[in-house]
């Protein structure tokens, strides 16, 4: 080439930007992205890199038509070879123009991160004729590693070798004896994703960038599942990938040139997820129970290569469905006995992508065991071998004679037994359970019975209708909040007719109606109280069944299930086996601390002789609420001191009792009001041939004349301040007498003496005078006061503490004496423990000579009706010293009138002798002790006060 030609070629090389990046800079960037480049020869000249240090950046070469050239915009990094010196020497006018377009490799962001601008396009234009052809070399789309293509001619790269794994390089001519071997610059893969489940799938086009254009390369891969064929990276024949097993593969590609120089590039290849159809559909189970709505066939299992795929199911027989993975009848569908035998249905499963699988399943409809579930109150019956006159004569903790579930308490009055084949006389009944209050408020309960009965709601006595009597009804009222509440009815029958009924009236009821238990669709209970169910097992009648097993599943851990003599507790799995149990009455009691909803199932499985089995399921859902516990009291109360004397002979008058003897029982009562009936005056006490002495203080706020009314069956007498005011002694039916006395304001003492021979027993004391609201019950003073060296009777807990209650008292001074029955304790100044004492009467004697106030605290811990522990504390103060009294026991100041009246209403002997065989109307429940006194004369009778009625302790 002449010097002039060389000069022409050099002048046609120009750059679009003043500060251009050399090929070395671009290769350095590629190396920073993970490539390995051999040490560069420092002898490379400016022509190798396309740089011309002495070039004028403003100079432009015009083409034949005189227009200016403007290169295309560049994106990414440059992967191209430099022009060799031999190319510059070629001046063949017939050679095509060569244009080098740099547009691949690093993108603009990569340039920016390295502080570089995209390299300008270097265009080499040779002086040529109009027939010369021009080819632009372009890289693939931005973001992929570029491959280099060139036009035919002196600058064209070598063709890829036909040997496996060999790819020709692209770059400058390596024939120059002064140019040493250079390692490949980059490995470019134009696509890095491969489809799963496709044998021999192509990943992408693989190319090598090498400055030595004539060089060839051997390719090695780190994963032998891949190969390079004709410049393409692909899977080997017979090899497939699974996205679910391997979603991405890291592959190292190493290119080794003919001179042994290497370059390694790592690629992360994504294994594309392709929707795959389910591969297997199976059914576990081969039987279905006939005549059972919602009966289960078995569990459907589905295999799908796509993990996490969801499926829709359809069944050829629209009576069936696949719900929660189970093939079953719909809840309103059954298989009839006419269809006993083999049934066939086709089940189709369709995945999210629309791929589906269908299978036809055959199963047998059989006559299997099933269960009918019902709920109600728990009725326990106790047959006794002796006559009865009150409820406490039955041992309610003993084993019942019979138990059953009843939906209501409504035993028709007659001579029949309460239970099938049971006793008609001398038996007891205890009915317990839950009621649902939808709207809170005041409720009236009505309890009718022949003979005695009582009602407790949430452990509180609401109606007392005890004793021997014909059928009659009494009522009681209680406030109830919305929710679940517990009831208990106790009843006894002696001889003759027997009947029992419980009704209520209140918010949400349809007037006065029977009390019923919630149904199976609304099962509920409270903590500590069992849920009562009846499970009626219907076993196959054909004799084909080999065995029937039953389990309750899904119970809270610690739940106790019992039926008769059988008891089991649910473990951590929540299951209890009840096979072979008598489930006519099944009790389920969750742990005491459990509050919430229970979703359990009763699973009944019938196994057949041929080895097959079929199960039926009954849902068992119920709620457990916190029990409505009555307030627990630790209060210290004073009142009248009641002493009872049980004697072993008949009585006709008061002086036949030794009132100075040791009482049979003592307690504190706030009023003198013992209902006329056949019950005892004290718990577990005698109902006949006993006496009672009640003493205490009353407070008169406004002085004046007071009328006292004393009713009794049998004899009774009243003393006020030691003076006899009313004499009602002798054998008689219940009747009332009155007496009048003048009383000054202040504290006054009273004493009532009474005896009962046989039959009904009743006693009541009322008064009427200044400061009273008409004729009303006489109530004891509640002032905790005692004279120096005196004794004060008190009651702790209102008589409601159980035998298991623990009681501690603090604040008592040293040498305080406490007495109850046979228990005596002298305080040492520390807390005293009265656990196990009968605290219906506790007598407290302050230390000798003590005056002032004793202040302390009582703490009680007791067990409520549902077994839940309750603790309560209450403070007290006892005033010790002079007690203000108004002593009117002076003969010259006393005037008393005695009036008698034999009662002619239902409180008379006619009421006492009423036949049990004639049920009364509800009006018979009227309190006979509430009658008016009939005055039979107005003659005043004077009474002398003698020493006979004075006592040392007044």
TrEMBL record:
Biased composition (Acidic residues): 10-19, 919-931
PROSITE patterns for this protein: CADHERIN_2, PA14
The entry's keywords: Glycoprotein
InterPro entries found in the cross-reference section: Cadherin-like_dom (IPR002126), PA14/GLEYA (IPR037524), PA14_dom (IPR011658), Protocadherin/Cadherin-CA (IPR050174)
Ranges of residues in domain Cadherin: 241-280
PA14 domain sequence ranges: 372-519, 635-782
Entry keyword annotation includes Transmembrane helix: no
Record keyword Glycoprotein present: yes
Location of region: Disordered: 1-183, 882-954
Compositional bias (Basic and acidic residues): 49-62
Pfam annotation, one family: PA14
Biased composition (Low complexity): 72-101
Bilayer-crossing regions: none
GO BP annotations, alphabetical order: homophilic cell adhesion via plasma membrane adhesion molecules
GO cellular component: plasma membrane
Name under which the protein is recorded: PA14 domain-containing protein
């Amino acid at each position: 080439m002449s010097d002039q030609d060389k000069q022409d070629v050099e002048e046609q090389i120009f750059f679009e930007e003043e500060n251009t990046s050399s090929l070395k800079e671009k290769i350095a960037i590629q190396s920073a992205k993970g490539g390995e480049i051999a040490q560069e020869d420092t002898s490379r000249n400016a022509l190798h890199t396309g740089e011309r240090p002495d070039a004028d950046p403003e100079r432009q070469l015009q083409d034949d038509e005189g227009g200016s050239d403007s290169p295309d915009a560049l994106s990414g990094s440059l992967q191209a070879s430099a022009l060799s010196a031999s190319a510059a020497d070629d001046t063949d006018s017939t050679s095509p123009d060569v244009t080098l377009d740099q547009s691949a490799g690093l993108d603009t962001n990569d340039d920016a991160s390295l502080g570089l601008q995209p390299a300008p396009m270097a265009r080499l234009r040779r002086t040529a004729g109009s027939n010369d052809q021009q080819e632009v070399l372009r890289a693939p789309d931005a973001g992929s590693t570029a491959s280099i293509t060139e036009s035919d001619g002196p600058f064209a790269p070598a063709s890829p070798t036909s040997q496996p794994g060999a790819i020709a390089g692209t770059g400058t001519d390596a024939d120059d004896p002064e140019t040493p071997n250079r390692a490949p610059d980059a490995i470019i893969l134009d696509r890095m994703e491969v489809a799963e489940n496709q044998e021999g799938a192509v990943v992408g086009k693989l190319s090598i960038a090498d400055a030595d254009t004539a060089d060839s390369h051997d390719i090695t891969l780190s994963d032998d599942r891949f190969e390079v064929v004709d410049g393409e990276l692909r899977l080997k024949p017979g090899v497939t990938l699974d996205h679910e097993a391997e979603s991405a593969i890291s592959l190292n590609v190493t290119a080794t040139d003919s001179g042994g120089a290497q370059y390694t590039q790592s690629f992360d290849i994504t294994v594309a997820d392709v929707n795959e159809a389910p591969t297997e559909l199976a059914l576990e189970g081969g039987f279905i129970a006939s005549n059972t709505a919602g009966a289960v066939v078995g569990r459907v299992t589905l295999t799908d290569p796509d993990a996490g795929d969801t499926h829709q199911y359809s069944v050829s027989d629209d009576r069936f469905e696949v719900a929660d993975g189970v093939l079953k009848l719909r809840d309103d569908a059954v298989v009839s006995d006419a269809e006993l035998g083999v049934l066939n249905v086709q089940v189709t499963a369709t995945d999210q992508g629309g791929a589906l699988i269908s299978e036809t399943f055959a199963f047998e409809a059989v006559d299997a065991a099933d269960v009918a579930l019902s709920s109600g109150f728990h009725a326990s019956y106790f047959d006794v071998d002796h006559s009865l006159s009150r409820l406490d004569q039955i041992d309610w903790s003993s084993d019942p004679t019979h138990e059953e579930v009843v939906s209501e308490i409504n035993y028709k009055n007659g001579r029949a037994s309460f239970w099938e084949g049971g006793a008609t006389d001398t038996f007891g009944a205890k009915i317990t359970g839950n009621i649902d209050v939808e709207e809170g408020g005041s409720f009236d309960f009505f309890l009718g019975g022949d003979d005695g009965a009582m009602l407790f709601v949430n452990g509180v006595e609401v109606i007392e209708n005890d004793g021997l009597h014909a059928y009659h009804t009494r009522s009681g009222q209680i406030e109830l909040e919305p929710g679940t509440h517990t009831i208990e009815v106790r009843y006894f029958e002696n001889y003759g007719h027997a009947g029992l009924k419980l009704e209520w009236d209140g918010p949400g009821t349809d007037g006065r109606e029977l009390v019923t238990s919630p149904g199976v669709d609304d099962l509920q209970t409270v903590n500590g109280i069992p849920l009562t169910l009846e499970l009626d097992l219907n076993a196959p009648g054909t004799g084909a069944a080999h065995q029937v097993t039953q389990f309750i599943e899904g119970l809270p851990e610690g739940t106790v299930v019992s039926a008769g003599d059988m008891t089991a507790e649910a473990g951590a799995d929540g299951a209890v086996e009840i096979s072979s149990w008598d489930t006519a009455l099944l009790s389920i009691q969750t742990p005491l601390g459990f509050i919430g909803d229970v979703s359990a199932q009763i699973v009944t499985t019938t196994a057949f002789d041929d080895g097959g089995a079929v199960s039926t399921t009954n849902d068992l859902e119920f709620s457990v609420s916190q029990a409505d516990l009555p307030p627990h009291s630790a209060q210290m109360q004073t009142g009248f001191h009641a002493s009872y004397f049980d004697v072993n002979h008949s009585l006709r008058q008061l002086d036949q009792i030794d009132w100075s003897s040791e009482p049979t029982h003592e307690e504190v009562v706030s009023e003198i009001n013992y209902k006329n009936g056949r019950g005892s005056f004290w718990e577990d006490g005698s109902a006949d041939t006993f006496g009672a002495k009640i003493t205490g203080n009353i407070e008169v706020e406004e002085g004046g004349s007071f009328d006292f009314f004393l009713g009794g069956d049998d004899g009774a007498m009243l003393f006020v301040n030691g003076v006899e005011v009313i004499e009602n002694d002798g054998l008689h039916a219940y009747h009332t007498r009155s007496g009048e006395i003048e009383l000054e304001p202040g504290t006054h003492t009273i004493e009532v003496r009474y005896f009962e021979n046989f039959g009904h027993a009743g006693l009541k004391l009322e008064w009427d005078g200044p400061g009273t609201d008409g004729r009303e019950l006489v109530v004891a003073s509640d002032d905790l006061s005692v004279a120096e060296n005196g004794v004060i009777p008190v009651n702790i807990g209102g008589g409601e503490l159980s035998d298991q209650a623990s009681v501690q008292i603090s604040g008592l001074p040293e040498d305080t004496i406490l007495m109850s029955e046979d228990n005596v304790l002298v305080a040492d100044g520390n807390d005293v423990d009265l656990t196990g004492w009968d605290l219906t009467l506790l007598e407290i004697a302050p230390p000798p000579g003590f005056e002032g106030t004793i202040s302390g605290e009582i703490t009680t811990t007791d067990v409520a009706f549902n077994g839940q522990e309750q603790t309560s504390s209450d403070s007290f103060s006892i005033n010790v010293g002079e007690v203000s009294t108004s002593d009117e026991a002076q003969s010259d100041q006393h005037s008393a009138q005695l009036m008698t009246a034999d009662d002619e209403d239902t409180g008379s002997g006619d009421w006492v002798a009423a036949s049990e065989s004639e049920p009364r109307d509800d009006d018979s429940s009227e309190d006979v002790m509430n009658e008016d006194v009939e005055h039979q004369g107005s003659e005043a009778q004077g009474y002398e006060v003698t020493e006979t009625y004075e006592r040392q302790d007044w």
